[in-house]
């Protein structure tokens, strides 16, 4: 079984080599992203394994099908970067639905604490033997209201962490969980009532730019916005304006709409062309990490094990539990209920 990995980094290679220690798979690791032009690298492979910023569009899908690649194995949970509607009937797509929701939820809290307690500033100061406290005043999380958008695996863990801090939790979810003890509100109420807002929903056509000029205007002055989900949930230009107007008090961003051009690469010493990203990074109340929330040893090991499990299941069995197709979100139309492949 031959598998071509795209956009792979050293940490991917380490974890996948450990998971493949029996040598079952013949693996090629490519640092380049999967594009129409780089598809050829997968010639002769049964599977391509891709990550969040590989743009698996129609052209790429056509090329893969032409080369007789059978499976696109996402080594991530989100699949907004794959045209799953176009892929339907042509090539199967599997993903890793959960590898460590704790990793992402804990990173969201790490960003929040860093931001509001100014740890990023204090760290640099004390490194330079500057022990002044001026400008480092934060605020207590205890008693504050956090609005959680998306109460799936990650959102629920984030809620538990917030409750541990004595915060009041309100949430919005398109499909609220029954009997969960979570106080669900509509999205406008969440914008209005939250001191802190954390996004934990998938990116879809309907919620692209859900944080925009209009929603920011409804939020409490000084709101802290955390996004560890997908960049395009936020209109980044509107966020810059919101911060400039002092409406948004701080932003903690692990994802960014145009991240595929910059994240995962070392551009120190280069001029970054993206003015919006540069402006955000220049702001003292914005913390950017480069899609790092998933990056723990536990998550990497789970990603590798589940990805190989997905591949094995797909080729050896009738069903493929982690397959996705555009019908899957509306399970009524999806054969997965009957333990069959999607097509
Ligand atoms: P999940 O599928 O367990 O939960 C997602 C929740 O969002 C569900 O409760 C669903 O009903 C809800 N939802 C769906 N559409 C919605 C909408 N339009 N508005 C509000 N809620 C909506 O997913 P999980 O594992 O909790 O992951 C959430 C997101 O986190 C993923 O979609 C992915 O984009 C992101 N993620 C980011 C990572 C990182 O490293 N930064 C790593 C892993 C996931």
Features:
binds 1,4-dihydronicotinamide adenine dinucleotide; Rossmann fold; 32% helix; five-stranded parallel β-sheet; alpha/beta; 2 domains; 11 helices; six-stranded parallel β-sheet; 11 strands; 343 residues
Task: Produce the secondary structure layout.
Layout: E1 2-5, H1 10-19, E2 26-29, E3 47-50, H2 58-66, E4 71-74, H3 84-87, E5 92-94, H4 101-116, H5 119-127, E6 145-149, H6 153-164, E7 168-172, H7 187-193, E8 196-199, H8 213-218, E9 223-227, H9 236-244, E10 248-253, H10 275-282, E11 286-288, H11 297-316
Parallel strand pairs: 1-2, 1-3, 3-4, 4-5, 6-7, 6-8, 8-9, 9-10, 10-11
Bound molecules: 1,4-dihydronicotinamide adenine dinucleotide.
Summarize the structure.
By secondary structure, this protein is α/β, with parallel strands linked by helices. It has helices at about 10-20, 60-65, 85, 100-115, 120-125, 155-165, 185-195, 215-220, 235-245, 275-280, 295-315; strands at about 1-5, 25-30, 45-50, 70-75, 90-95, 145-150, 170, 195-200, 225, 250-255, 285-290.
Q: What does it look like?
A:
This protein is α/β, with parallel strands linked by helices. It has 2 domains: 2-99 and 297-324, 3-Layer(aba) Sandwich (Rossmann fold), CATH 3.40.50; 101-288, NAD(P)-binding Rossmann-like Domain (Rossmann fold). It has 11 helices and 11 strands. The strands form 2 sheets. Strands 7-6-8-9-10-11 form a 6-stranded parallel β-sheet, sandwiched between helices. Helix 10 (275-282) links the parallel strand 10 and strand 11. Helix 4 (101-116) crosses helix 6. The chain is globular and about 60 Å long. The relative contact order is 0.13. 1,4-dihydronicotinamide adenine dinucleotide binds at residues 77-78, 98, 101, 104, 149-155, 172-175, 200-202, 204, 206-207, 228-230, 254-255, 291, 293-294.
């Amino acid at each position: 079984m031959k598998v071509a990995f795209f956009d792979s980094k050293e940490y991917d290679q380490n974890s996948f080599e450990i998971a493949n220690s029996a040598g079952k798979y013949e693996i090629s690791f490519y640092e380049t992203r999967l594009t129409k032009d780089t598809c050829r690298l997968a010639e002769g492979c049964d599977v391509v394994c891709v990550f969040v910023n590989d743009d698996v569009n129609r052209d790429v899908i056509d090329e893969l099908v032409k080369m007789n690649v059978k499976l696109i194995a996402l080594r991530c949970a989100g699949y907004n970067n794959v045209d799953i509607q176009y892929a339907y009937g042509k090539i199967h797509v599997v993903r890793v639905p959960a590898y460590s929701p704790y990793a992402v939820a804990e990173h969201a809290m790490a960003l929040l604490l860093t931001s509001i307690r100014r740890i990023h500033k204090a760290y640099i100061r004390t490194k330079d033997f500057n022990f002044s406290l001026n400008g480092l005043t934060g605020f207590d999380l205890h008693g504050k209201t956090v609005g959680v958008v998306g109460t799936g695996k990650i959102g629920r863990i984030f809620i538990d962490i917030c409750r541990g801090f004595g915060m009041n939790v309100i949430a919005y979810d398109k499909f609220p969980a029954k009997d969960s003890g979570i106080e669900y509100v509509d999205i406008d109420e969440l914008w209005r009532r939250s001191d802190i807002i954390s996004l934990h929903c998938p990116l879809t056509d309907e919620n692209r730019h859900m944080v925009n000029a209009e929603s920011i205007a409804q939020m409490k002055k000084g709101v802290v916005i955390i996004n560890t989900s997908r960049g395009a949930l936020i209109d980044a230009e509107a966020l810059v304006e919101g911060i400039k107007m002092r409406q948004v008090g701080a932003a903690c961003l692990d994802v960014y709409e145009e991240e595929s051009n910059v994240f995962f690469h070392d551009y120190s010493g280069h001029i970054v062309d993206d003015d919006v990203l540069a402006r955000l990074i220049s702001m003292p109340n914005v913390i950017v990490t480069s899609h790092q929330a998933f990056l723990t040893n536990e998550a990497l090991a789970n990603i590798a094990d589940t990805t190989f499990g997905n591949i094995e299941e797909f080729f050896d069995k009738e069903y493929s539990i982690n397959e996705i197709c555009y019908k899957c979100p509306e399970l009524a139309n999806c054969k997965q209920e009957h333990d069959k492949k999607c097509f």
